[in-house]
Amino acid sequence: MELKDKLSVMVMTHIINVTTEPYLNNEMIITTIRTSHDRMKLQGVTYYIYIDSFFKENYPEYYDIYKQNLLERFDEELSDINIVIVPDATSTQKGNWIHMINNCNTPYFMFLEHDWEFIKDIPTDTILSEMDKHENFSYIRFSRWPAGHGQELRWDKSNGAIYEKELAIGSDVNLPLTKVGLYSGNPHIVKTKKCKDFYLPVIMNHFPYIGDRNTYLEKEFLGIIVRDIQSQGQLKSHETWGTFLYGSLPEFEPVITHLGDWCRKS
């Protein structure tokens, strides 16, 4: 199976500071798409762009300019990449995530917000091959922190989750992996079926409301997974959630960098 038939990419974007000085010519999303495509060797893979519909509903004049600017930049700078703007995007991260899950026609998809740069090569074919072989390898995220950095630990070890080197999966193909407990919204690849069968039903059971624009998946998943760890133990919880990080302890370097610390919706 060709890579384009195995993986899709979801990219979420929005107009920045719309009530003051709207940022209508997004440079970050161009960097996000280009570097992920080149560093991960995603030739032929389709990128699905979700533009926050809040702006279409409340600031249509800005939305139309923003969309047209994107189309022009895509045509000028990313013409070698398959890009589709999703016509029925919602105004929430959660709603768009659900839409992607329900409409994805590949066994895997990558979740991306519009403000990341990939700074190291990533062996996508090897990752997907290992995910094919191992049922409990369901999710892999890419880190912007070096091993041992406090921010990375905040997501996992400090919440009682697993944070240790994976010794079995990937060892025969030199794929460095670390077991992590939590589901982060940082760039990651996930199994579509796992989302349909488990991640989505679990989160909707605990947090069924979709309309809050300030809700982030990782915050809702945090409480659910920590409770699982407390009730089932680290190993059992990890087998259930199947979450890994690309890179192996005791040392690994970041493979992405965040471009959007200044980026806030208004």
Mean pLDDT: 89
- As a whole number of angstroms, the C-alpha radius of gyration is 18 Å
Q: Please bin the fraction of helical residues.
A: 25-40%
CATH architecture assignment name? Alpha-Beta Complex
Give a quick account of the main beta sheet: strands, pairing sense, barrel closure. 9 strands, mixed
Number of helices: 9
Backbone structural class: alpha/beta
Q: What is the number of domains?
A: 1
Name the features:
266 residues, 11 strands, 9-stranded mixed β-sheet, single chain, Spore Coat Polysaccharide Biosynthesis Protein SpsA, Chain A, alpha/beta, two-stranded antiparallel ribbon, 9 helices
Descriptive report:
By secondary structure, the protein is α/β, with parallel strands linked by helices. The chain has one domain: Spore Coat Polysaccharide Biosynthesis Protein SpsA, Chain A, CATH 3.90.550. Helix content is 39%, strand content 18%. It has helices at residues 27-39, 53-58, 60-77, 93-103, 124-133, 150-155, 192-206, 217-232, 234-241, and strands spanning 7-13, 46-51, 82-85, 108-113, 116-118, 139-141, 163-165, 177-180, 188-191, 243-246, 256-258. The strands form two sheets. It has a nine-stranded mixed β-sheet with strand order 3-2-1-4-9-6-10-8-7. Strands 5-11 form a two-stranded antiparallel sheet. The chain is globular. The termini are far apart.
